[in-house]
Write a structure and sequence with these properties.
CATH topology of the domain at 339-479: Calcium-transporting ATPase, cytoplasmic domain N
CATH class of the domain at 339-479: Alpha Beta
CATH architecture of the domain at 339-479: 3-Layer(aba) Sandwich
Helix content: 40-55%
Shape: elongated
Structural class: alpha+beta
Strand order of the largest sheet: 10-24-23-22-11-20-21
Number of strands: 24
Number of helices: 20
Largest sheet: 7 strands, mixed
Length: about 650
């Protein structure tokens, strides 16, 4: 509870005590004149309600009259006036109405503040400092002051302040604030790390690769902080509704106060002015739209916060609302449904034994940083155990984590005359032997008769030594462990179509799609082709359903922007894809797509519950008030009580762990 809330609580307690004392005193000194009791009761009324009266007066001066402060002020002052006019001595009613309103406001303020604090704590990833080593000592500086290329030191328990690459040390990182993943991530020298993670064990040194303003932690905080500026259609509706609703009910209340008495006077009956004015004042209190105005934005805020704690960043409540209507999901392949990490999955050797072939290939590729080149080098260095398939004669890795026990190294002195052959592959001299590695076109251009690969589930790298063909390697992208489950979960969520749009070869795309359960595939697409297909899919939508596209590469930015909802893989995704997307998955887990949809649908259920509950209760109470069956007590429930219940319901959107 903050300082302001404590002050309100003290005023509530003082007012409640004064009301008890005055209730006892009224029985003892009932003969005192009505105006005297009105002045006495004015003391607790001003103690509890002075701030409401002040806000109401400022609203009138600023020509922003019709808000809850104005309605409460008019209603309670009117109740005072009626009690004085009738001489009933019921001054406590006006004080109690203001007291109950303040209790409701305090409760609502505390609940909203608590939910905001929970979200702020979950997103408390901003690093306070970075450690730079100077003259053997660590100096703490602001992350803003660290230039790209600097070496920073991160000790156990500290947050990584900037994105970069580990140049010394190894450790475990707590990434839960970014990805929602509770399991620590092990990192070694050479690994890329992102800001916002907490270093748990060893001391690590990191070479920074981005300025603080461009780092992951800054972008996440910017996305979350700006999410409230993108309002949903439900929020916009409530804003417009409140703008016209309040003046209308004020006019209705004025009509209720004047029209029936005038009609009664015309027909010669008692006008009962005080009774109709009291009904009108009750009508005003009931009509306050607080429950809608407060609970609807809070529902979206809580939904976005709950998604954030699960590593799903939503850039605005409009995107959260749109996500709930998703009926078609289109995917990129590489880096989205697959790891984007290539592995040697088979060696088809001819005149050279498979181990020697891999040895020569790894050395020929040792100066290249291309992912396929790295995969060949890794296959050699890992010393994988290979087994000959009796049907195909290909050498297959038994298990990627098993090793022959032989320690291997790349000896670059064995290699010379390395040349990159654009669009073809590479040539090099290894152990005085001339090697050619590349695609079928490279073999044909050099007059080398090669063998077509029977395993068409990956990229084929043919190899020739001294002009003679010796075999080829198959390089496959690894499917993400959760991809198949992600597609199944989307189908369970009611997503009608799952489509893969990829620039990869058709045979590779078909194989991946078959393995993970995607029914529709379009392969060998350029970025503009993907946009074209998405536009065709948009034209094929049913009813109000929307289309989401999921991608990670820079070439996905145009199609992410074109789709109804763009979802980017954030941990490994390109900056361009993250900027273009509406939703970012921080841990690159495709299973989070279905979870994001479930979160959005839960949030929208809560929004509609609040809308129908608030409007329904108010409508019933307004009718009862107009007919004279509702007093100020019921009016307070219809206003503050409904608001508190709606706020409590809104906070449920924050809890999404088990969705």
């Amino acid at each position: 509870m903050n300082k302001k809330q404590r002050k309100v609580l003290i005023r509530i307690i003082i007012t409640a005590l004064l009301l008890v004392i005055l209730h006892i005193a009224y029985d003892l000194f009932e003969e005192l004149p009505g105006p005297v009791w009105a002045l006495i009761y004015l003391v607790p009324y001003l103690i509890i309600g002075y701030d409401i009266l002040k806000k109401s007066f400022k609203g009138i001066l600023n020509r922003q009259v019709f808000d809850e402060n104005f309605l409460m002020s008019v209603a309670t002052i009117g109740a005072f006036a009626i009690a004085l006019y009738e001489g009933s001595g019921e001054y406590s009613e006006a004080v109690m109405v203001m007291l109950l309103y303040q209790i409701g406001e305090l409760f609502q303020s505390y609940a909203v503040g608590k939910s905001r604090k929970n979200i702020s704590d979950l997103m408390d990833i901003r690093p306070d400092y970075a450690n730079i080593e100077e003259n053997g000592e660590l100096k703490q500086v602001s992350p803003d002051e660290v230039p790209v290329g600097s070496i920073i030191v991160v000790r156990p328990g500290e947050k990584i302040p900037l994105d970069g690459c580990i140049v010394e040390g190894d450790s475990s990182l707590n990434t839960s604030a970014l990805t929602g993943e509770s399991r620590p991530r092990e990192v070694l020298k050479g690994d890329e790390v992102i800001s916002g993670c907490i270093n748990m064990t060893g001391v690590i040194k990191i070479k920074t690769e981005k300025e603080f303003g461009e780092s992951t932690v800054s972008k996440i905080l910017e996305l979350v902080e700006n999410s409230s500026s993108q309002k949903s259609s439900s929020e916009n509706f409530i804003t417009k509704f409140a703008k016209y609703y309040t003046p209308v009910v004020c006019i209705c209340a004025l009509t209720l106060a004047l029209l029936p008495p005038v009609v009664l006077m015309i027909i010669g009956r008692d006008a009962m002015w005080s009774s109709w004015v009291y009904r009108a004042l009750t009508f005003l209190v009931i009509s306050c739209p607080c429950a809608l105005v407060i609970s609807i934005p809070l529902s979206f805020f809580a939904g976005i916060g709950g998604a954030s704690r699960e590593g799903i960043l939503v850039k605005g409540s409009n995107y959260l609302e749109a996500l709930s209507k998703t009926g078609i999901v289109a995917f990129d392949k590489t880096g989205t449904m697959t790891m984007g990490i290539f592995e040697v999955s088979a060696i088809h050797h001819g005149t050279m034994e498979h181990c020697s072939l891999l040895d020569y290939a790894a050395h020929a590729e040792c100066f290249s940083s291309h992912p396929i080149s790295r995969s060949i080098q890794k296959a050699w260095l890992d010393g994988l155990v290979w087994k000959i398939d009796p049907e195909t004669g290909a050498a297959l890795p038994v298990k990627s984590n098993e090793s022959s026990g032989e320690e291997r190294h790349i000896v670059r002195e064995r290699v010379s005359s390395v040349k990159e052959l654009p669009g073809g592959g590479i040539s090099a001299i290894v152990d005085d032997k001339k090697l050619l590695l590349g695609n079928a076109r490279l073999m044909s251009e050099n007059g080398i008769s090669y063998k077509e690969c029977e395993d068409d589930h990956g990229t084929v790298v043919h190899m020739a030594v001294d002009g003679s063909y010796v075999g080829h390697l198959v390089i496959s992208d690894v499917i993400k462990p959760g991809s198949a489950a992600a597609i199944a979960s989307l189908k369970t969520c009611g997503v009608r179509r799952n489509i893969m749009l990829t620039g990869d070869a058709k045979n590779v795309a078909d194989e991946v799609a078959a393995n993970i359960g995607i029914d529709e595939v379009h392969a060998e697409l350029l970025p503009e082709d993907k946009v074209k297909y998405v536009e065709e899919l948009l034209a094929e939508k049913h009813g109000k359903e929307l289309l989401a596209f999921v991608g990670d590469g820079i070439n996905d930015a145009p199609v992410l922007s074109r789709a109804d909802i763009g979802i980017a893989m954030g941990a490994l995704g390109s900056d361009a894809a993250i900027e273009a997307a509406d939703i970012v998955l921080m841990d690159d887990d495709p299973g989070k797509i279905a979870k994001a949809i479930r979160i959005s649908r839960k949030c929208m259920r809560i929004v509609y519950e609040n809308i129908w509950f608030a409007i329904g209760i108010k409508f019933i109470c307004l009718i009862l008030g107009a007919l004279g069956f509702a007093n100020m007590w019921l009016a307070i429930f219809a206003d503050t009580g409904v608001m508190v219940l709606a706020v409590l319901n809104s906070i449920r959107a924050l809890f999404v762990k088990r969705l």
